[in-house]
Amino acid sequence: MNTRKTTDGLIRNKERTKEKIIAATEVVFREKGYTGLTNANITKEAGVNHTLIKKYFGSLENLLEEYVKRKDFWQLLNNERLNELVNQQREVTKFDIVLVLNALFDKVFHSEELQKILLWELSDDAEIMKKVAREREVLGERLFLSLDNNKGNKLDLRAILAVQIAGLYYLSIHAKSNGSLFCGIDLNTPEGRQRIINAMESIIDLSM
User: Fold this and answer.
1) What 8-state DSSP symbol labels residue 92?
2) Strand, helix or coil for residue 93
3) Are 108 and 73 in contact (CB under 8 A)?
4) Beta bridge partners of 182
5) Structural domain for 30, as ranges
């Protein structure tokens, strides 16, 4: 019994330490950007020994990958809405797509970390970001295959969604980093964001 309690305690301590390191990774990323994500900076912020990243995650790259995946919208969607959509054995509807796009817009707009991750993906040739992008495509493909099965669609929905998703990424980052109007619309106001949502819904309505 005592051995089991000791083992359980060690496991809990390990998980707490891992979460502490991941939380420290977020702080360093927010304050120093992706160039500051070093073993020394992260373990200093976490207040742990510098050997623990390798011990608990295998490598710094594995730690960063786990952190990025926890922030990535499509990884989170894979565990929630995407599984529900794909496994319902029915055609994906306009309502389904609008829900996903609205959730994406809300997530990216309100998450400074996710915005920085998207910029990191664009500005650095890191293999970790390429891997995350590839996995994101695999997750998205599940949704696209469901759309392809909708025989009533005559337009190229993949291309339409690509333009919309890229637009939502850019508009969110522009609004938060620049703060200026875009086509005369202030996305930093609820009214401005609602105009984008309304336009997005209109495009989906015309496309499906």
Assistant:
1) P
2) coil
3) yes
4) 185
5) 2-59
